[in-house]
Amino acid sequence: MSKDCGNHAEDDLRQACRRLLCLLFVLALIVAVIALIVYLVLRPTHPRFYLQDATLRQLDLSNGSTSVGVLSTALQVTIASRNPNGRVGIYYDRLDVYASYKYQQVTLAASLPPVYQGHGDVDVWSPVLSGPNVPFAPYLADALAKDVAAGYLIMQVKIDGRVRWKVGSWTSGHYHIFVTCPAFLVTGGGNGVPGDHGFRFQTATYCRVEV
Question: Is-above-0.85 flag for pTM?
Answer without folding.
Answer: no
